[in-house]
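Internal QA ticket QA-208
Title: Verify multi-chain structure generation after dependency bump
Assignee: T.L.

Test input:
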Amino acid sequence: MSNTDWPDGFIAVDWGTTNRRAYRLGPDGAVIDTFEDELGVTSVPTGGFPEAVAAITVRLGDYPMLLAGMVGSNRGWKEVPYITCPAGTADLAAQLAWTEWGRTAIVPGLALVDEKTGDVMRGEEVQLVGLVALDPDTANATVCHPGTHTKWARMEGGRVAQFRTAMTGELFALLREHSVLSNLLQRPVEPDTSFLAGVEATYAGAQLTSELFSIRARVLLSLMDEDAAASYASGLLIGADMRSGMAIAGEDEVVVLGRPSLTRLYAAAVAHCGKPCREIDGAGAFVAGMRAIKEAIA
Amino acid sequence: MSNTDWPDGFIAVDWGTTNRRAYRLGPDGAVIDTFEDELGVTSVPTGGFPEAVAAITVRLGDYPMLLAGMVGSNRGWKEVPYITCPAGTADLAAQLAWTEWGRTAIVPGLALVDEKTGDVMRGEEVQLVGLVALDPDTANATVCHPGTHTKWARMEGGRVAQFRTAMTGELFALLREHSVLSNLLQRPVEPDTSFLAGVEATYAGAQLTSELFSIRARVLLSLMDEDAAASYASGLLIGADMRSGMAIAGEDEVVVLGRPSLTRLYAAAVAHCGKPCREIDGAGAFVAGMRAIKEAIA
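Actual output:
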């Protein structure tokens, strides 16, 4: 039996910038226990990762562990080099960064370099390969993973062939917390007619930074109801974001993968722009991705 | 002699959100004295405007006063209704909001309402009519006023016929102070090749929120020098902003009006995109505008 048979199962951790979610998987791959906390990598003090990792085993038991996300960045436990696209499950498994052979490894992120730009992801790659493991029909598909930094990925042959990031969620948070629009953006965002009007405007090419200012102007001039501002602003950002996605999309459907609170907004936007679309919960895809990577370890 | 002959001259105040600049103009309209401080409208406590105005007369003498900018907003001394475009010097003079007849008045801002959007300005209108007073050739021109909220105005017959705002300066400040790009954006922005590459990308239609994220990715992947990031980001925002401007521009030259530290960036961007362009200092245009408005008081 090799070091990585893990007969008692293992722990999979999605460790992002501001929070982390850990799952204990049994020998058959089913989730036995899970927890989520706000100990994202920016909350871990320098040199504090061994202790932060040990705290996971206190909660879930002493099992081997696969970690993904910003924990593998220069702000995390250990900087793990990116793998260049195209890349899939086998590539991720082959280039795990082991901290203890057979016990603890960090999944590498992906890099995209083409004639136009460069891009990076850390964490979403696990959900992307997990999606293919859950549903082989997505081996060739366009996948949208909404978030602080929304990712649009083109899957080909089950691997991530290309992707583009847009800093949609982060910009919305900046506008809501710190900008002249702040007091107008406090309401919850709903995929309503205001939201879809915003999507339509920027998806059709309206200039985002002017459209954003116009929210304040329209409210001042009573051309827009103050209650509509947050949804409209979110729609503007997502409509712009979709231009990045559609630039790499194929003819087929768009799979919107992630937290249901965000996927429902993106799914509404994608459908409104006339693309077939379905939503998949990212948590399930993450677990499936870690299971697939574990199985692919040589 | 009417109440507004002002034989001893008057004081003109450009009173914005975060700072104010006051000028004492002599009987012939020449600037005799001036000061600038950080007592913008958001620094004046509720009910504190009479005192803040009195402090100006302590500095510059007890003269009649014309105030412009956010001092006329709902965050300022008194909310003055916007005048709808097209509007010029005579309209502004006719709709001054007097607090003491013949002694103190606030210049109204401008509103734009068309089938596409709504927009507002407060303060820039004085510089725009001042520009025409200084140079009658600009009576029909495209004017760019860069700033926290950059304004692009179409002048026709000496009046502001149309305008569009982009929240360029504010977004750059948000990104520099609070975003994932923060540490990359601390260097001064120069109109160099990185800046022009940014302008070119978004002016040609590249999606702003993806291009912004790509700065971080490119630096991580060593595809961009960290020192180039601030200029490139500024170029991206200004290139996007220019799309709003060019949507209302005529065939003629673009006059870039404002603070020289900002006009030089915009002038470089406009020229790079192939439009003839010149820079005018906004302070001189503001004084000329206030002089023209004073002379137009009935």
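Spot checks passed. The CA atoms of residues 84 and 111 of chain B lie 5 Å apart.
Status: verified.
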